[in-house]
Recover the amino acids of this structure.
């Protein structure tokens, strides 16, 4: 081959290699691109919200067969982390639960060889290790594949125990750098102490350990001692690698500062530990002084323990001995320990079975001695109890020493025979108000897989229990019978309870629920729960079952009749449940229930009937679902003509499920028909919805989220307006129908939409110009609505009527939400607008008190801004042609004007004027202002008006307040009303320009004393006769000082009285008078007459002195019968509450002669008709009303006097009965005609008073005379 030929053939292999390399590079590039694409897709997926949950589910599936992992309520991504509502890991009998866990991931750490967990936060961590004790496996090294740098936090750590342990607020830092483990725990709380800890552990042999704990314990101090702060320190040092591992433990507790006595709570512990050897404790010794367990451990009793204990090796076992004294023993319910002294010695040989060689204790004033040993069958031994006082164990127990014995011996290799007898000492002559212990007798056998109680009898607290049963703990089955009785109740149960088989019955008969309730309340655990509850009457419960309690088709049946139950029995508005019956039948997974109940509240009666069924797919912990097949409620009361009724129209399905982190209730659509006491039927409908309650996530790494979610939609149609408690009464007639709807959605945000509006109908109101006739109001729109969008709240009110005006109102504000729920904060912004135009205010007279009418026109425009704490108003209120009238009271004001301006938190009343009735009605002018003040910091005012400052000035000018025929009053004067910090002050002077009060005659028919009213049918509760506490009102105790001047023309007429009053009174009421009105001053009569017993008496002296109580003035009244030669009359003294009435004469005469002169106009009665007249007058005088037959006849004939006397008033020799007729023509002019019944004499008299003491008398008839009479007083 020539050289050229060789050169031509040489490039061929190179080209082949080059092509192969190109293909391999292309393939590698494709592989790398595919890998990059897969990694990119995986990285993108790791950022999606559900990637974290998917990864945890995959991890649960890949767990070894001996382990289980479950998660729930997972949120977040695998790339960044997230939240796990609940997770549960289990291996054998070890369970670890976590709730409200937050995980933060940082994957770039992985490239640096570190764990990508950047932060860990657990709300609640629970550890439950029920694995039996086993020999520990020695450690040699402790290495992790990755470095770790992890801040962590555990809000609540719970070790189920035993012993139970709980710590709050744990947080710290854990680091592993490949050679050492470092743990730092920041201060955390346990019981009354606050501790911190540090630990450092070598990863490789010999695994040197250095751990320390520091803390402070704050004791509350025992009785008579001061609180004390203690310092706690503990260290552990040594090695942990292999069998030679050894640790030295040292702990001490001592006061932070020295005490005066030198004695305080102290404790020291020293121990040498070989953790991997069979005899782990090489040596241990502890001594303590005044140790209070409550300060060191949650829930422990308060103690003052002094003593020591030691553990020393003894061959292949241990010997333990200890003694302690408790200087502050006490009963359990007072958080004390009833143990005062204890001495014990225990021995544990190498075979591992304990022996108690000595046990002596002083407990509750008695002695407890015992010894025992542990055998393969169980514990055997004997305990003697002598003189233990039950009241020192628990203060609810009654006195009476307990004595007894407990014995246990091995019957065979598997069985321990047990016998216990405990007898209470007789309580004769002792206080037995507590729970008395009488007797305990127990005899049975114990095996690991079977407990057999051959006889059990307990007598205590007036109750008795007898039982015979057996229990298999591994099979969770029991068989036997139990009987017990207590005051008012007997019960018995017998049968078999097992997972797959069984039968039995339970019967409870309660003859007197009141006795049983009183018995339960004697027990401390029930007294507080039953507080306020009362029970009475009989009750009964019967239950039967067939089959095992884990068999889904096991039939059961229950019938229960409840006793009469009530709350707050002394209150008239308390509910009382009676005649209630509950029946349940079916199987454990399919139940049918019915209920009938009757409840009372005052005069109202509620009857409830319902039937429902429920079923579950699992016996324990599974969801339940069912239907409410029927339900009805009826509310009736005597004052209603027809009851309220509500009836479920169709069956409603529901579903309930519950877990450790949420409860869920779901329901389907339904409808209820409602009937009221008046014509109409409303329909209440709702759509399918749900309610869910979740445990809120903790704050910190995870933001708090809503603990409840709700979805509810409901609406109501054809709701009569008359059914609403608007107080329409008879003043307005309505056929208005309303419709409404509410929609509630609550999850991450809260949304509420509710409205109620008119659908049809109108109102009929009184016509202004046609009394007694009604017209349509022309109602076009009536609507109220509420919208809540998370924290934004809007409300609107619209009213549009032709004759009742227009009203538009709207308001907006904001809410806030935190862990405790929704709130309306004080700084929440508020805004709104109110516009009202009422051209005919009279159409709204229904809002006025009964019998009152208002008229006029109202125009109001207001705007609201600011915050809830500091609202700002702007606008005006004005009214024209205002009129207020009450025909019953005789009050009539008209031509009124109102002008008010509102700005900020102040109302300026620029004008409020009213005119009285008639052309001379006078007027009232009012001006002033009202200011709402911001609340003072740290000052709580009990009055709702405590933040109001008000100044009003009222001026009346001849204002006719009342224009009724029997009650006319016109006043003038000024009154100033002020209010500051809830205190109202009134100052002013009022004068009566003209007044006339005609007192109503006491002629109203009344029931006789032999008539008893047993019950009244009334819509209102029975009237209470007790007056309200004086001075208690919204405005506190007013401070009133007003002068009342009766003026020149204040007349009073009635009850035979006709006079004019004059004088001034000072009205006083303030805190010193406890809010009661007080009057000071005098009121006197100006002339006048008093008509009694057919005679007109001239009021010579009339004086009322007020010096305190307004209803009990001092009286000084003298009324004289005129036109007699003898001065006689009536004199009243004393007080209005206890008046003293006596006959008066001048000169002084016997009472019989005074009465004769007063009634007959002459001296002494001569018998016959004249004596009858005097008897009638005497009866009338002391009966109180002063009316006589002659007085009523004289009034009917238009005369002032008709009297019957013996003889003539001018002729002493005349005999026989005579009739006298008298008539007063004026104040000083009086005519009298006198004639005998036999016609033997007759005379006509004229009396004319020339002065107070000089009277002219003219006589004609049988004798003619003219006399001048001069009266001389001798008093």
């Amino acid at each position: 081959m020539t050289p050229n030929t060789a050169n031509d053939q040489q490039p061929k292999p190179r080209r082949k290699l080059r092509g192969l390399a190109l293909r391999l590079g292309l393939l590698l590039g494709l592989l790398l691109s595919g890998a990059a694409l897969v990694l990119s897709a995986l990285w993108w997926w790791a950022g999606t919200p559900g990637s974290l949950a998917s990864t945890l589910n995959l991890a649960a599936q890949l767990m070894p067969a001996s382990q289980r992992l479950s998660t729930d309520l997972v949120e977040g991504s695998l790339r960044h982390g997230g939240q796990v509502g609940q997770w549960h890991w289990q291996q054998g009998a070890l369970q670890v639960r976590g709730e409200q866990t937050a995980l933060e991931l940082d994957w770039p750490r992985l490239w640096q060889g570190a764990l990508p967990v950047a932060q860990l936060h657990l709300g609640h961590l629970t550890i439950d290790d029920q694995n039996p004790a086993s020999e520990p496996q020695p450690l040699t090294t402790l290495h992790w594949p990755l470095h770790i740098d992890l801040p962590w936090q555990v809000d609540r750590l719970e070790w189920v125990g035993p012993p139970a342990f709980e710590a709050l607020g744990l947080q710290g830092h854990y680091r592993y750098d490949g050679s050492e483990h470092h743990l730092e725990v920041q201060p955390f709380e346990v019981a009354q102490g606050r501790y911190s800890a540090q630990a450092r552990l070598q990863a490789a042999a010999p695994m040197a350990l250095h751990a320390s704990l520091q803390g402070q314990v704050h004791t509350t101090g025992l009785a008579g001692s001061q609180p004390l702060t203690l310092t706690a320190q503990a260290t552990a040092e040594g090695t942990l690698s292999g069998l030679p591992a050894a640790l030295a433990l040292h702990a001490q507790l001592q006061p932070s500062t020295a005490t005066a006595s030198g004695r305080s709570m102290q404790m020291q512990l020293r121990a040498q530990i070989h953790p991997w050897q069979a005899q782990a404790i090489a040596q241990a010794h502890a001594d303590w002084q005044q140790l209070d367990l409550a300060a060191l451990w949650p829930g422990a009793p308060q103690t003052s323990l002094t003593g020591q204990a030691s553990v020393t090796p003894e061959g292949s076992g241990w010997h333990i001995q200890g003694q302690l004294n408790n200087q502050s023993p006490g009963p359990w319910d007072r958080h004390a320990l009833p143990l005062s002294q204890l001495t014990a010695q225990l021995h544990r040989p190498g075979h591992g079975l304990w022996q108690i060689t000595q046990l002596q204790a002083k407990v509750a004033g008695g002695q407890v001695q015992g010894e025992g040993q542990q055998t393969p069958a169980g514990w055997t031994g004997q305990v003697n109890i002598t003189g233990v006082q039950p009241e020192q164990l628990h203060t609810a127990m009654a006195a009476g020493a307990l004595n007894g014995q407990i014995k246990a011996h091995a019957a065979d290799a598997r069985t321990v025979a047990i016998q216990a007898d405990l007898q209470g000492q007789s309580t004769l002559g002792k206080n037995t108000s507590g729970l008395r212990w009488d007797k305990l007798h127990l005899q049975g056998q114990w095996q690991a897989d079977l407990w057999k109680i051959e006889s059990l009898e307990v007598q205590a607290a007036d109750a008795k229990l007898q039982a015979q049963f057996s229990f298999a703990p591994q099979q969770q089955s029991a068989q036997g019978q139990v009987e017990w009785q207590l005051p008012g109740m007997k019960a018995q149960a017998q049968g078999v309870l097992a997972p797959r088989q069984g039968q039995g019955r339970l019967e409870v008969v309660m003859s007197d629920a009141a006795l049983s309730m009183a018995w339960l309340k004697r027990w401390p655990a029930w007294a507080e729960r039953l507080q306020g509850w009362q029970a009475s009457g009989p009750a009964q419960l019967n239950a039967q079952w067939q089959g095992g309690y884990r068999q889904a088709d096991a039939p059961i049946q229950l019938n229960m009749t409840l006793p009469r139950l009530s709350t707050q029995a002394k209150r008239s508005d308390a509910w009382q449940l009676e005649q209630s019956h509950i029946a349940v039948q079916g199987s454990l997974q399919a139940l049918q229930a019915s209920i009938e109940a009757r409840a009372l509240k005052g005069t109202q009666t509620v009857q409830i009937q319902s039937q429902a069924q429920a079923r579950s797919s699992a016996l324990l912990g599974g969801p339940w679902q069912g239907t409410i097949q029927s339900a009805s409620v009826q509310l009736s009361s005597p004052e209603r003509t027809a009851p309220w009724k509500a009836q479920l129209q169709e069956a409603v399905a529901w579903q309930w499920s519950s877990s450790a982190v949420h409860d869920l209730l779901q329901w389907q659509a339904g409808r209820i028909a409602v009937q009221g006491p008046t014509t109409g039927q409303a329909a209440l409908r709702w759509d399918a919805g749900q309610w869910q309650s979740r445990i809120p996530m903790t704050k910190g790494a995870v933001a708090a989220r809503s603990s409840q979610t709700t979805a509810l939609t409901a609406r109501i149609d054809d709701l009569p307006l008359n059914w609403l408690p608007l107080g329409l009464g008879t003043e307005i007639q309505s056929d208005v129908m309303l419709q409404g709807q509410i929609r509630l959605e609550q999850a991450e945000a809260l949304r509420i939409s509710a409205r109620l509006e008119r659908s049809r109908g109108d109102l009929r109101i009184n016509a202004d110009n046609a009394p007694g006739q009604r017209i349509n109001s022309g109602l076009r729109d009536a609507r109220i609505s509420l919208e809540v969008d998370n924290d934004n709240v809007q409300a609107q009110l619209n009213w549009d009527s032709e004759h009742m005006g227009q009203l538009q109102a709207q308001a907006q504000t904001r809410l806030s939400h935190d862990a405790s729920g929704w709130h309306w904060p004080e700084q929440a912004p508020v805004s709104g607008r109110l516009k009202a135009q009422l051209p005919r205010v009279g159409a709204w007279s229904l809002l006025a008190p009964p019998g009152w009418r208002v008229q006029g026109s109202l125009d109001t425009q207001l705007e609201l801004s600011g915050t809830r704490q500091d609202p700002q108003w702007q606008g005006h209120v004005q009214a024209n042609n205002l009129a207020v009238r009450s025909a019953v009271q005789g009050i009539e004001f008209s031509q009124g004007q109102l002008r008010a301006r509102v700005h900020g938190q102040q109302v300026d009343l620029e004008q409020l004027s009213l005119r009285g009735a008639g052309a001379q009605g006078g007027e009232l002018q009012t001006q002033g202002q009202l200011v709402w003040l911001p609340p003072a910091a740290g000052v709580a005012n009990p009055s709702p008006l405590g933040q109001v400052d008000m100044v009003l000035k009222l001026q009346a000018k001849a204002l006719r307040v009342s224009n009724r025929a029997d009650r006319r009053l016109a006043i003038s004067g000024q009154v100033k009303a002020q209010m500051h910090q809830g205190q109202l002050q009134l100052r002013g002077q009022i004068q009566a320009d003209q007044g006339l009060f005609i007192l109503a005659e006491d002629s109203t028919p009344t029931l006789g004393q032999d008539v008893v009213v047993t019950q009244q049918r009334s819509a209102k509760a029975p009237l209470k006769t007790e007056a309200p506490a004086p001075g208690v009102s919204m405005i506190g105790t007013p401070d009133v000082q007003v002068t009342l001047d009766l003026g020149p023309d204040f007349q009073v007429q009635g009850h035979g009285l006709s006079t004019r009053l004059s004088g001034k009174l000072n009205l006083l009421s303030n805190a010193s008078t406890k809010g009661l009105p007080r009057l000071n001053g005098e009121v006197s009569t100006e002339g006048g007459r008093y008509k009694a017993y057919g005679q007109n008496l001239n009021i010579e002296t009339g004086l009322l002195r007020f010096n305190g109580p307004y209803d009990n003035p001092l009286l000084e009244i003298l009324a004289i019968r005129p036109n007699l030669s003898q001065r006689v009359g009536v004199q009243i003294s004393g007080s209005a509450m206890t008046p003293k009435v006596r006959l008066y004469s001048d000169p002084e005469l016997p009472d019989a002669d005074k009465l004769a002169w007063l009634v007959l106009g002459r001296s002494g009665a001569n018998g016959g008709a004249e004596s009858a007249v005097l008897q009638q007058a005497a009866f009338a005088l002391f009966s109180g009303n002063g009316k006589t037959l002659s007085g009523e006849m004289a009034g009917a004939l238009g005369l002032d006097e008709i009297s019957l006397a013996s003889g003539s008033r001018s002729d002493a020799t005349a005999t026989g009965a005579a009739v006298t007729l008298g008539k007063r023509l004026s104040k000083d002019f009086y005519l009298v005609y006198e004639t005998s019944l036999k016609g033997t004499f007759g005379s006509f008299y004229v009396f004319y008073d020339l002065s107070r003491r000089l009277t002219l008398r003219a006589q004609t008839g049988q004798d003619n005379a003219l006399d001048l009479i001069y009266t001389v007083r001798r008093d």
Q: What stands out?
A: The two ends are 186 Å apart (CA to CA). The CA atoms of residues 557 and 585 lie 4 Å apart.
